[in-house]
Amino acid sequence: MGGGGRPCDTETVPPKPTNHRTRGFLACAGAGLFWGCGFFFGKIALAEMSVGTMVFYRFVFAVLGLTPLLFTHPAHFTAREWKLLLGASFLGVPLQFLIQFKGLSLTTVSHASLMVGTMPVLLAVGASVFTKERLNILGWTCLAVSTTGAALIALGGRHSTSGPTLAGDLLVVLSLIIALFWVLLNKKLVETHSAIIVTAYGLVSGALMLAVIVPFLYGMPPVHGISAKAWAASAASGLLCTASSTLLWNYGMSQVPASQAGVFLNMEPLVGSLLGVILLGETLGPLAWIGGSLILLAAIILTTRRSSAREEPALL
User: Fold this and answer.
1) At residue 157, what are phi and psi to the nearest 5 degrees?
2) Burial of residue 209, with CB atoms counted within 10 A of its CB: 0-12 exposed, 13-18 middle, 19 or more buried
């Protein structure tokens, strides 16, 4: 690199890509904001669609947004990386989403959001176990504070919809455990490939799997008898809460450790509660406002403190 002479006899080591920590955190925050709309739009669509139909059309719209990227960003995966990508796609799309929204159909948005509040801790533990990341005491404290804030938001909301069920809550938790492995597999892929390639090929592959699984389990998704409101909710779920959010998340994961990025997953209950107040006429009590403040405080502390070598992600 950078010279016209003969290369030296010793093997040159390619420079380590520069991590843009601030950009990574902003991307993760954006992903959290978009994902925060997912349960809201999902509930609107589920009023007229089955779980399978709603998830199927969500990914149809996501594919419409991502397909152009397949032509502008060709993939150069090895055979092993293709297996990794397809495994992650199966976990992250048909398995995770069908289980998660089955759970949502049996519980409330507030309880589903509360369950999502456990994801940052799951991600931090998973990153420590599988990728050897190390989070110091301040990082663990931020995760604990953020998760506490998520719980307070969910408990502080007053909802007029039908009540939650244990089965629904447990299905959402199960989907989060599955999502943990999807995140970690994507984390490995974005270490050697761009976030655009991993996102586009991963979600399109998962959508193709859905096209086989959904008709088998639920029958062919209907086209007629669905209102414009439900179609709009499906389009927003696909383009914003799936394609855009996953692209932002994968980029963020290429810039910062997964254990630190996890705090931004708690933006979901924050955004979900605000949407409930503004658009659904729900009210937030003092606990919810305190919880939102805790989430923002944890995010500010985690993203403004200095990084250290101990926190750099390690290769699998």
Assistant:
1) -85, 150
2) middle
Q: Computed from CA positions of residues 124, 125, 129, 133, in that sequence, does the dihedral angle turn out positive or negative?
A: positive
Positive or negative, the Cα torsion across 211, 214, 219, 224?
negative
- Partnered with residue 158 across adjacent β-strands are 283
Q: Which amino acid is at 152?
A: L
Residue-by-residue DSSP string for 214-279? HHHHH-SPP-SS--HHHHHHHHHHHIIIIIIHHHHHHHHHTTS-HHHHGGGGGHHHHHHHHHHHHH
Number of Cβ atoms within 10 Å of the Cβ of 293: 13
CA–CA dist 254, 193 (Å, integer): 9
Among residues 30, 36, 26, the alpha carbon closest in space to that of 269 is found at 36
Helix (H, G, I), strand (E, B) or coil at 168: helix
Express each pLDDT in 163-191 by its tens digit. 567 777 778 878 988 988 898 898 889 88
Q: Which two tokens stand for residue 202?
A: 């991963």
State residue 287's pLDDT score: 76
pTM, full prediction: 0.74
Cβ proximity of 113 and 268 under 8 Å: yes
Rg of the chain over Cα atoms, rounded to whole angstroms, equals 20
Rounded Cα gap, residues 144 and 136, in angstroms: 13
Alpha-carbon distance of 40 to 22, in angstroms, equals 28
Cα-based angle 158, 301, 175 (whole degrees, multiple of 5): 50
Taking CA atoms, 125 is separated from 71, 130, 133, in Å, by 37, 9, 9
**E strands along the chain, which residues?**
157-158, 283-284
